[in-house]
Amino acid sequence: MSSAFLTDRYELTMLAASLRDGTASRPSVFELFSRRLSGGRRFGVVAGTGRLLALLRDFRFGEEELRFLRDEAVVDAEALRYLEHYRFTGSIRGYREGELYFPGSPILTVEGSFADAVVLETLALSVLNHDSAVATAASRMSIAAGERPLAEMGSRRAAEQSAVAAARAAYIAGFSATSNLEAGRLWGIPTMGTAAHSWTLLHDSEEEAFRAQVDSLGIDTTLLVDTYDIRRGVETAIRVAGTGLGGVRLDSGDLPIVAAEVREQLDELGATSTKITVTSDLDEYAIAALAASPVDAYGVGTSVVTGSGYPTAGMVYKLVARQDATGSWVAVAKASAEKVSKGGRKAAFRTLANGTAIAETISVADGFEQVDDGAAHPDARALQVVLVDHGEIDGSHEGHAGTLAAREHHLQVREELPVRALALSKSDPAIPTVFIDVD
Amino acid sequence: MSSAFLTDRYELTMLAASLRDGTASRPSVFELFSRRLSGGRRFGVVAGTGRLLALLRDFRFGEEELRFLRDEAVVDAEALRYLEHYRFTGSIRGYREGELYFPGSPILTVEGSFADAVVLETLALSVLNHDSAVATAASRMSIAAGERPLAEMGSRRAAEQSAVAAARAAYIAGFSATSNLEAGRLWGIPTMGTAAHSWTLLHDSEEEAFRAQVDSLGIDTTLLVDTYDIRRGVETAIRVAGTGLGGVRLDSGDLPIVAAEVREQLDELGATSTKITVTSDLDEYAIAALAASPVDAYGVGTSVVTGSGYPTAGMVYKLVARQDATGSWVAVAKASAEKVSKGGRKAAFRTLANGTAIAETISVADGFEQVDDGAAHPDARALQVVLVDHGEIDGSHEGHAGTLAAREHHLQVREELPVRALALSKSDPAIPTVFIDVD
């Protein structure tokens, strides 16, 4: 299926106009970045890169797309001919998926002719804004959960395809499993889930429901004990399954109090190894508030798939440099006090002191051909990798392996954060962004 | 492409357990409803029904799905055999797409065997929660915009497939166009868009950019005049295009002030029919604040596709009635003070007085076979229609025609709302929900 129509109309009208006036072929640099971190977050998490590269493979205008553009008179015949043969032949450097970002981080740098690069705006932003918003919220939840397993179960609160992408972004940011089957199949994420309240309500008694579940899924299963009365639910669960029951799930009530009561009851019944999973409207703050409670695992729904109050990451895709009619490079940016952009091609490094991040160092070149190779920053880690080289997509970021690699990268680079970055309250970014002009 | 894996794992584990203990075939009624209106909204807007019905056609477990379920030991062999032949053969009654809803409105009533109906939970909720959240926000914006055209241009702030669904939901709720090409093709929504700041920045001067755009798109186009200095941008625009220029677009600045200045300048230049479109971070409140300003059209991005602060509608899918082992109907509901559910099969009516809605009247039957036909409510409009009849999907809700019909239905039923429903501030629902027990 083509991804080429996941695009705003104005990209194609600009392309058509540029073919007409000859600017279509101007070598151009677009940058995808965020002016600020939404919601006073202390760091952002890049996610979506692997999905974007897979979608880029299918960014081709087929017969159906061309017919619509012709019938609706979106572009002229010259543009139709160009689009018929379009594939992205430029290059993309960018932050690795799972990497942290800060205001002004050049998350993607897209280089190519204006026509080649302008049409990727919507697709790149759609994928990265959504996935990064989810991953940023998820990483905070994962930090709050500590060593306890954390499952994503928000599919019912997100559009059906976003749900799959959200499961992946949450996994990259430290979640351990998802309820979503498609995310399991597509990205190799462990799937989980046993029963809903409807299971208990279907049966003539809670006991019958528990017995049938244990018969089908074994005593290692997790029984949902809050359909009627939690105390009686726990009692019934252990009577049916025995003290070897895998777990009980609580989906309502004042969790710190209820969890303590249920733990005590389970221990009294001898079910000392039966685990407690809680799943009622959790977000990073509720998870943190349960840190001292006898909870063994968390399930998070709405708040993670909606970015915990910030469902989009606020990234933009801007032209930052292009050649002029004489072939000289010109750094460009909109003049606006409220919408700050910095023109020029960037190279990005995370400056470390004793292994701890102290600055996002970004060197800016107005019109050079050479990218800063980092030799001048021996105390810094280079943040950009080549994702697409003259149209050749690096396949290592896609599929099961790419998803797992992004997760491992995230968990590793998160260790570089200063302690103050881990607090949940609203604040400034954990490290400053420092621009260095190298021209 | 199969939609069957857009599903939470627990639905299939319940299905497998129910096949094992014989409850799979129990006639069951599931209801999709919302306990409250998110964000103190005064009404909700149902959207997604047409998309859900189209996805339901493809809800089949193919070889790939069955292989994953077997390899991952999600379900046993008996369940695999059941799923191999699964298609939904039950019935669904529901609110028409575009209809308003209130707390407790039975938006969808899904009837079938437990096994048939339980597996639709995630898909139904994903689609309706997302699309209704967008439509509810969009309807408020459309009311605030009055007769002025309102375009959805938020694709870059939503995951790539949600963006298409969001464009559709916004259109149903009164928006007039979208920037998203796929939404234009799939749903027949008018598309719009001309140029971004990158277009101006690509050129060696703003004048060259405007001239090229007018050459390509004609003088009826809309020029983006705020890349550098707005006053000079407007001057250049009219010099290049003449006083017949279609429009100018403002994407930054203090809009009420800037719009007034630009209108005055355009009029002074003789461009009295040139329209002003504004697009800078608008939501329903900003649109309302511009009501007295000389603005001709609005473009809305982030806020509409993210539900203006409430990106999911909070709908749930609950078992409300089922037969017991003796074949008698039993109304069921979870016992919970915080999560109120009302068991029983429902019929829903909007009670009107002189054409104005005064109550959401819902009759509840514990275990009856007959649905309330409305004869007892002569002053009320029946809200439910048959969407799926014993597996036969009513095709009239899908495609271009279904989308347009939903929009027309919405604009018509919105007229029934009392005036207080149109205010934007947080409040109680505009009309009360009244439950009537008919057994």
TrEMBL record, chains A, B:
Residues 6-129 form the Nicotinate phosphoribosyltransferase N-terminal domain. The keyword Ligase applies. The keyword Zinc does not apply. It holds the Pfam family NAPRTase_N. It comes from the Bacteria. Gene3D superfamilies: Aldolase class I, nicotinate phosphoribosyltransferase. InterPro entries: Aldolase_TIM (IPR013785), N/Namide_PRibTrfase (IPR041525), NAPRTase_N (IPR040727), Nic_PRibTrfase-Fam (IPR007229), Nic_PRibTrfase_pncB (IPR006405), Nicotinate_pribotase-like_C (IPR036068). Pathway: Cofactor biosynthesis; NAD(+) biosynthesis; nicotinate D-ribonucleotide from nicotinate: step 1/1. GO terms for molecular function: glycosyltransferase activity. It catalyses: 5-phospho-alpha-D-ribose 1-diphosphate + nicotinate + ATP + H2O = nicotinate beta-D-ribonucleotide + ADP + phosphate + diphosphate. Residues 150-351 form the Nicotinate/nicotinamide phosphoribosyltransferase domain. Transiently phosphorylated on a His residue during the reaction cycle. Phosphorylation strongly increases the affinity for substrates and increases the rate of nicotinate D-ribonucleotide production. Dephosphorylation regenerates the low-affinity form of the enzyme, leading to product release. Keywords: Glycosyltransferase, Ligase, Phosphoprotein, Pyridine nucleotide biosynthesis, Transferase. Its EC number is 6.3.4.21. Belongs to the NAPRTase family. NCBIfam families: NAPRTase_put (TIGR01513), PRK09243.1-5 (NF006698), PRK12484.1 (NF009131). Catalyzes the first step in the biosynthesis of NAD from nicotinic acid, the ATP-dependent synthesis of beta-nicotinate D-ribonucleotide from nicotinate and 5-phospho-D-ribose 1-phosphate. This is Nicotinate phosphoribosyltransferase.
